[in-house]
Amino acid sequence: MKYTWSLLFLLFFSCSSTQQEQESEPSFIEIPISTIDYSTMSNWYFHPNQSFNFLQTYDLDIAVIDEDLSISSTIEINNNATTNTGIDVFWVHPTVLENPPTSPSTVSIDNQDTNYIGQTILAQGALLAKYGRFFAPKYRQASPASFLSIFHTEEERATALLETYSDIKASFQNYLDNHNNGNKIILAGHSQGSFLLAMLVRDLFDTNPELREKLVTAALGGMGYVYATDNSTLGGWWKNIGLCTTTNECGCVHYWRSYENDTNIPEPVSTLPSYSETLVTSGLVYRTTDINNDIFFQDNLIFETQSSPLRYITPGIQYNFSNSYNFVAFDNMYTARFKRESNQKTGLAVDYIANTLDQRLNELENVVSPTTFINGDYHIKDYHIYIWALMQQIDEKISDCL
């Protein structure tokens, strides 16, 4: 069975731990040195210096599909995957594993479906190549048990995450030392990829004003939650970096997590990295989540408490009406709104509004029913749901960040 990013992180939100682990003093575990050589181009899914870079020739234009399945217009998106625009995109892919270990551990790159992961990166992140050179490293993924297991200690889970994180840190450091050359940076990823980037933000950016100046934004889709004790959103996972407070603000975080409009948002899960004292002592989390006092946050700049139109963008190559466009957009099918049920339960609520004559497939309906998901959880589509709103905001940031 393939554990994709959707299954792994849906379980995060649908399984609350009922077994209390024995409390112990948090231990310091040093971040190991990665065994992967990121000066070798084969250890990157996408890198501007690769002799063959499939993303470089990938058509990013979007076909807007009407309810009768005709293309009403197209949106031109320039592909700058290998062009130095002064901005670079560093993308970390979500969990994609087949028959993963049942204990906290990592899975070697040789035992991963790299072809499928490459396709996943294209489907979720390729549109961000609009902004500049696109870097996407291969890495040893952490097993689901590294996030979920209540039968292993917090230290065991953290040890696996630190090994996985060492690859992301090494790949980013290779990029920073050899390829950045003063460019601004967009960090982006989904699910496990977002967790690893959250650690990177704390480790390298949070206490480094010079590096924070380079950060356009960190787009951490489906990570888990952003938490703080007050509305500033500072002082949770990171001390000095919080959610973006305006659409054109730079050096901040975008975070979102998607649900069907009528779905009750699940309770937080205490096995996630933000609860790990070991990761705090290792320098990858500023402080752990305080479930009794913290408020959880997500983006509410584009989608506020009142529903507004959602442009849903999805890979279109599988549709016979997409006319070979790699992406299609469905307008007037969905609305979205910022939803809060309690201090800890918040999310992006998506509603299907198409009329009965609409011939377009309601893709979100397909992710509601499987038994591995809680009903109405759209995590599998987080990036497809929010990518247009994210790009709207990045467009506004560009003039202020350069």
Describe the structure.
The strands form 5 sheets. The chain has a 6-stranded mixed β-sheet, with helices on both faces. Strands 3, 4, 14, 16, 17 and 18 form a 6-stranded mixed β-sheet that branches. A hairpin with a 5-residue loop joins strand 17 and strand 18 (346-352). Helix 4 crosses helix 5. The N and C termini lie far apart (45 Å). It has one domain. The chain is built from 8 helices and 18 strands. By secondary structure, it is an alpha/beta fold. The protein is globular and about 60 Å long.
Give descriptors for this structure.
402 residues, six-stranded mixed sheet, globular, 8 helices, alpha/beta
Portion of residues within helices:
10-25%
Largest sheet: 6 strands, mixed
Number of domains: 1
Q: What is the number of strand segments?
A: 18
Q: How much of the residues is beta strand, in percent?
A: 15-25%
Briefly summarize what is shown:
With 402 residues, the chain is α/β, with parallel strands linked by helices.
Task: Give the topology, please.
Blueprint: E1 2-4, H1 5-14, E2 44-46, E3 62-65, E4 71-75, E5 87-92, E6 96-98, E7 106-107, H2 114-125, E8 133-137, E9 141-142, H3 145-148, H4 154-178, E10 184-190, H5 192-205, H6 209-214, E11 215-221, E12 226-228, E13 252-254, E14 258-260, H7 277-281, E15 295-297, E16 308-315, E17 327-340, E18 346-352, H8 382-401
Parallel strand pairs: 3-17, 5-8, 5-10, 10-11, 11-13, 14-18
Antiparallel strand pairs: 1-6, 2-8, 3-4, 7-9, 12-15, 16-17, 17-18
